[in-house]
């Protein structure tokens, strides 16, 4: 039984699909005007302060505030279907972390 699907013309078996490459352009969100003085204040913060600000802003959002495009929904549905079709083909976090650390060496 094949568990590969086509999502927007890209096979879920493709490494490009698994990385989400090629879908990003269609996942853009509308940009809203933000007061430039606020941007200037944010840019003047230290990296640690900006990271703290990002966390606080993120925590202020509810799930309903975060738009999910049809492309993202299709990607998630395909990944869930692939996981359900191949439950033994999953990696544990320690294994993934080790592989990533090896890539960064």
Q: How does this structure look, described?
A:
With 105 residues, the chain is mainly alpha-helical. It has one domain. 51% of the residues lie in helices and 4% in strands. It is built from 5 helices and 2 strands, in the order ββααααα. It has a two-stranded antiparallel sheet. It is flat.
Radius of gyration: 19 Å
Characterize the main sheet.
Answer: 2 strands, antiparallel
The class by helix and strand makeup works out as: mainly alpha
Task: State the end-to-end CA separation.
Answer: 38 Å
* Averaged pLDDT: 79
Strands in their spatial order, largest beta sheet: 1-2
Reconstruct the topology from this structure.
Layout: E1 6-7, E2 10-11, H1 15-19, H2 36-44, H3 47-59, H4 70-85, H5 93-103
Antiparallel strand pairs: 1-2
Summarize the structure.
The chain has helices at residues 15-19, 36-44, 47-59, 70-85, 93-103, and strands at 6-7, 10-11. It has 105 residues and is mainly alpha-helical.
Descriptors:
105 residues, mainly alpha, two-stranded antiparallel sheet, 5 helices, flat
């Amino acid at each position: 039984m094949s568990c590969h699907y086509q999502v927007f013309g890209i096979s879920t078996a493709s490494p490009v699909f698994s990385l989400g490459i090629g879908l990003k352009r269609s996942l853009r969100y509308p940009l809203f005007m933000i007061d430039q003085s606020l941007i200037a204040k944010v840019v003047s913060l230290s990296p640690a302060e900006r990271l703290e600000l990002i966390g606080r802003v993120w925590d202020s959002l509810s799930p309903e505030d975060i738009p999910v495009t049809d492309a993202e929904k299709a990607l998630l549905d395909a990944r869930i279907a692939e996981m359900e079709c191949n439950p033994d083909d999953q990696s544990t976090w320690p294994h993934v972390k080790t592989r990533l650390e090896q890539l960064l060496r």
